[in-house]
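Lecture notes, part 5. Sequence design as translation. It can be helpful to think of inverse folding as translation between two languages: the language of shapes and the language of residues. The source text, in structure tokens, appears below.
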């Protein structure tokens, strides 16, 4: 019979073997960050992304607490994979439209990350050698992954609401495995943004009403990917050459620059190499 501590140690090792750069364990919550989610929805800051406001049969917001959708879950294994591809592919001129880095991959990152999660899940079930329930998600589950990532020790929330890791910056794909095992959790990472507000000041459409608050109705990523219909005229000048997503608030982050300086080869993950 494996102890929960032994299983947690195994998960950390197996996650690396499955191709992840970071892995940690968070309790099922809820956490203080979840308390702000209903207010964010009520303020209309989710824009047309109605799936974020989905409710369970009892009328509870699903993403406001994991217990609303998976009451059996006791721990959340959070894994992250670096997608920093360094410099973009050569462009003939600066007038070329910008596509967000996360979409540069030849393969859909959902498929890549999910395959690694499935591999880790299978190893976990074999190693635990006891009946447990699990479920994997890559952006498709009714939960806010970055909240669990913070409480799994993978990073802190930047003022631009992105998860920032001290070594890798914020170019991170996240995947989670819910489990009925009550595994020993990590400690949340300390906030290291200090007084810096470069991300807030750099946003050309003013999508941040306050630090760690995002108004999706003004976010370029939302406007160029999620929104249906016309983009409001007053926001069009700020969009510039962004045609699919936006990396501005991450590009100006000092932690992103430090991560790039540390990396001899920014991206060694052949599954996430950008298409040329």
């Amino acid at each position: 019979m494996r102890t929960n501590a032994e299983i947690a140690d195994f998960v950390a090792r197996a996650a690396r073997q499955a191709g992840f750069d970071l892995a940690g364990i968070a309790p099922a919550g809820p956490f203080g960050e979840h308390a702000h989610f209903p207010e964010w929805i009520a303020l209309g800051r989710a824009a047309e992304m109605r799936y974020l406001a989905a409710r369970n049969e009892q009328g509870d917001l699903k993403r406001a607490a994991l217990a609303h959708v998976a009451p059996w879950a006791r721990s959340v294994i959070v894994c992250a994979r670096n997608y920093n591809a360094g410099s973009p592919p050569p462009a003939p001129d600066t007038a070329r439209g910008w596509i967000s880095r996360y979409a540069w991959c030849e393969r859909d990152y959902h498929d890549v990350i999910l395959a690694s999660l499935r591999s880790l899940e299978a190893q976990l079930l074999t190693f635990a050698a006891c009946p447990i329930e699990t479920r994997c998600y890559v952006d498709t589950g009714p939960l806010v992954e970055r909240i669990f990532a913070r409480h799994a020790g993978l990073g802190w929330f930047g003022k631009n609401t992105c998860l920032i890791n001290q070594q890798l910056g914020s170019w991170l794909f996240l995947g989670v495995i819910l489990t009925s095992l009550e595994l020993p959790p990590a400690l949340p990472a300390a906030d290291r943004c200090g007084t810096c507000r470069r991300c807030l000041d750099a946003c050309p459409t003013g999508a941040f009403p306050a630090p760690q608050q995002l108004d999706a109705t003004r976010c370029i990523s939302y406007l160029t990917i999620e929104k249906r219909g016309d983009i409001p005229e007053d926001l069009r000048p700020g969009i510039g050459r962004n045609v699919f997503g936006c990396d501005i608030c991450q590009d100006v982050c000092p932690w992103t620059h430090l991560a790039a300086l540390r990396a001899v080869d920014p991206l060694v993950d052949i599954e996430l190499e950008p298409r040329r």
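The translated text above is only one of many valid answers, since several sequences can fold into similar shapes. The mean pLDDT is 91.
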